[in-house]
Amino acid sequence: MYKCAMDLLSTKEVAERLGVSVQRVQALVKAGRLPAQMIGGTYIIKEADLKLVEDRKPGRPRKQAKKQKAEKKPKSKG
What we know:
By secondary structure, the protein is an alpha+beta fold. The protein has four helices and three strands; from the N terminus they run αβααββα. It has a domain at about 5-55: Arc Repressor Mutant, subunit A (Orthogonal Bundle), CATH 1.10.10.10. Helix 2 (about 10-20) packs across helix 3 (about 20-30). The chain is elongated.
C-alpha cells in the first residue's frame, strides 16, 4: 500500500549511503546533479536517483589558480 514511501530518502539517509555530509547532498541537489523534492523544509530524494551520482569523483576538485601561480614563480638562485 505505501510502497512508494519506502523508495524515498532524506538528505541524511542519502549522505550516509554516499559517505558524504548532508551539506554535500544539498549541494548536489542545488547544482541539479541530484533530483529532489522539497517537502516540509526537507529535501526528499528517490532511492533510484542515487545512481545519477554514483560515478562522481570523491573529494574536492583542485583549484587551478594555485597550481598556475606555482608554475609562474621564477626560481631565485642565491
